[in-house]
Amino acid sequence: MKFIAIVGTNASFSYNRKLLWYMKKHFKKEAQIEIVEITDLPLFSEDIREIPEGVQKIAEAIREADGLIFSTPEYDHAITAALKSLIEWLSWIKPQPLNSLPVMIVGVSLGNMGTVFAQENLRQILSSPGLDAFVLPSNQFLLGRAAEAFNQQDELIDERTISWLEHCFNNFMIYSKTLKPMRFPSPKKENNKELIESEESKNSTETEEVWWTKETNQGLPVLSDADTGASEYEEVIEPENSAYLQFLEEGETLEFDDIGELRGKSEE
Q1: Domains of the chain
Q2: Confidence bin at 130 (pLDDT 50/70/90)
Q3: What is the pTM assigned to this prediction?
Q4: Alpha helix (H) ranges present in the chain?
């Protein structure tokens, strides 16, 4: 199996970089691990409408991999700005490279807690709409006291730590193999009759959806933070059906103000 491993910082020195290089060497018989740096990537900005070449290369490498490994430091209970910026760039790429992608998160810190807050922060980000990555549940590898964890050859010292890393990585390999059919589904064979019936059903459904949208959306705000991803632009957003309609009596309609806020209901 092939995995992309992202160093979650643009710093020149990082224990998280050491951990990934150790994993690459330690698991070389089980999988091919390609380590990716994010040191030269520009900070994400909505005003830059063209995806940087470096981000495009990372996205292409991710698409060809069986899974993704993040090794993240912890800055102020969160991931680094550089890593967050990369994920925001990736969220703009279509087709989405992180969608249904198996992800393993590891982390190293100087303190005792081993990036526990940063890892939870990263899990939350990767589960957001538009990304929808599949992060390996449980199996958290949290390495604290980084200065004491490696020897002069940049290898982990503690046998229990190595054993737990092996346990987590083996589970990630199983997880990645299990999810592979979701990312690369086998093409389905359909005869002409099934294809025609499928298209007719689709057209019928689309017609009903258009009618429902026209009948039920009466000025309600159509955007939420979850809809837009890494953006504040109101682009390609489908309106949602009004949740207030279930409370209307026959002959009643909803009234809204100039900015789309619900003012009340009235009788026709």
Answers
A1: 2-183 (3.40.50.360), 216-268 (no CATH)
A2: confident
A3: 0.72
A4: 15-26, 53-64, 81-91, 116-126, 146-149, 159-183, 192-216, 225-228
